[in-house]
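Example S7 (structure tokens).
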């Protein structure tokens, strides 16, 4: 009898793979999750996967239809969907087509990789139908339930947890080492070249003003790589255009964010989830207001945090102090370390201080049932007949959730040579697409403005 695989994770980017894999390990601590990457424009490279801090074999690359065939064939207990909302909805309807009646199917879990600052209703309703919709804080759990209840949908799946990657050593002041400032950039916030160049120049200016400090520009990806969002103006290219270049005490860095935060004395960002990691470790954290406090930037999420400030104030020596009440509502207060180096629970976390205790209890109760009802997403051909079919079609599923002709999984006997050839062709196609986004599209856009 083949070995039973307990948990599977399907992700569509490097950051979502990090969230999904770590969440799976919190929900099913004694099992190594089977990993899958949803084939698409943001499929991460091996280098990107190596930097997220999750060890293991490279996840298998699949289409939505192939993944549905896999979970229909294998006996998984839990499936974690670390995907954008539309992809989650496609898998949920595909699962409903696989198990149209009560069945011994896997428990379906989804959630968000970090700060939820845009498309709250749209993203949540696309995730409705999962058995668990994880909220990273009490604040998020309340918002999520309000959205579901507001449309008359069942909100019982909403489960309060915490970000699974919060942890690391508490902040220790610099002492004898150089004071380190880290500017955590984001792929799409802000989007425009002028705004991104401004932020980079201000970071470089901070380094010139404080030559005794070390200023690191923490990058998410190299040119040609994609994350969840497209990056048309990579900071690497903007840095190359700075007259005289970056000062000696300012440099671009890659790597696992947790390791970069070790030794950091000030974290600066516009609205990155790195701010929550930093705050959890009691590192002084600045959320920039230089470009305004706007929903499009996501920094409005930090209203009341005590972290909103500007480069001018940081240049003058300000170190922000986070508001304890705001931290508690966001589930990012420091907690005592637990054996193995894993982060403890934040105050306000459910189940006696264990941030994932309630989620594990729900999963255990569902697994104890001999059969589970079919997934029941809010969006159906009755509630959203003009919206749902298009979402499913993008993942090559018919309106009833079954694979469209030609979308079935590849033959299991496909040769290794043929698989490698397909992989090389896909990577070449992605390279051409990314080149078009980062090199050709900006030129055409500028030409259109002449």
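Recovered sequence:
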């Amino acid at each position: 009898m083949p070995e039973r695989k307990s948990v599977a994770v399907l992700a569509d980017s490097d950051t979502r793979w990090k969230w999904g894999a770590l969440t799976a390990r919190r929900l099913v601590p004694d099992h190594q999750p089977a990993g899958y990457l949803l084939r698409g424009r943001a499929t991460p490279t091996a280098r990107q996967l190596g930097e997220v801090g999750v060890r293991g074999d490279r996840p298998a690359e699949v289409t939505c239809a192939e993944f549905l065939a896999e979970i229909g064939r294998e006996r998984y207990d839990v499936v974690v969907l670390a995907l954008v909302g539309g992809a989650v909805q496609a898998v949920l309807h595909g699962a409903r087509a696989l198990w149209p009646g009560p069945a011994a199917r896997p428990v379906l879990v989804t959630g968000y990789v970090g700060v939820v600052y845009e498309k709250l209703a749209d993203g949540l309703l696309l995730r409705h139908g999962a058995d668990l919709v994880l909220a990273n804080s009490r604040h998020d759990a309340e918002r999520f339930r309000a959205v579901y209840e507001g449309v008359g949908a069942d909100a019982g799946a909403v489960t309060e947890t915490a970000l699974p990657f919060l942890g690391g050593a508490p902040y220790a002041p610099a002492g004898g080492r150089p004071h380190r400032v880290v500017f955590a950039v984001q792929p799409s916030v802000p989007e425009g070249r002028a705004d991104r160049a401004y932020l980079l120049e201000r970071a470089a200016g901070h380094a010139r003003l404080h030559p005794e400090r070390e200023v690191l520009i923490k990058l998410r990806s190299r040119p040609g790589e994609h994350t969840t969002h497209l990056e048309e103006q990579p900071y690497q290219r903007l840095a190359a255009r700075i007259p005289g270049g970056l000062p000696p005490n300012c440099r671009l860095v890659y790597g696992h964010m947790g390791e970069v935060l070790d030794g950091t004395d000030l974290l600066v960002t516009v609205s990155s989830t790195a701010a929550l990691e930093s705050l959890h470790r009691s590192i002084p954290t600045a959320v920039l207001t230089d470009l305004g406090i706007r929903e499009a930037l996501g920094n409005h999420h930090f209203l009341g945090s005590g972290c909103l400030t500007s480069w001018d104030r940081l240049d003058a020596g300000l170190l922000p102090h986070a508001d304890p009440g705001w931290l508690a509502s966001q589930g990012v207060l420091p907690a005592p370390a637990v054996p193995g180096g894993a982060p403890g629970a934040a105050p306000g976390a459910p189940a006696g201080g264990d941030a994932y205790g309630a989620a594990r209890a729900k999963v255990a109760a569902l697994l104890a049932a001999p059969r589970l009802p079919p997934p029941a997403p809010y969006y159906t051909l009755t509630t959203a007949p003009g919206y749902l079919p298009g979402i499913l079609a993008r993942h090559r599923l018919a309106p009833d959730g079954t694979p469209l002709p030609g979308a079935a999984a590849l033959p299991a006997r496909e040769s290794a040579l043929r698989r490698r050839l397909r992989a090389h062709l896909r990577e070449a196609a992605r390279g051409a697409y990314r080149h078009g986004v980062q090199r050709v599209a900006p030129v055409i856009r500028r030409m259109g403005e002449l």
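Notes on this example. The longest strand covers residues 7-11.
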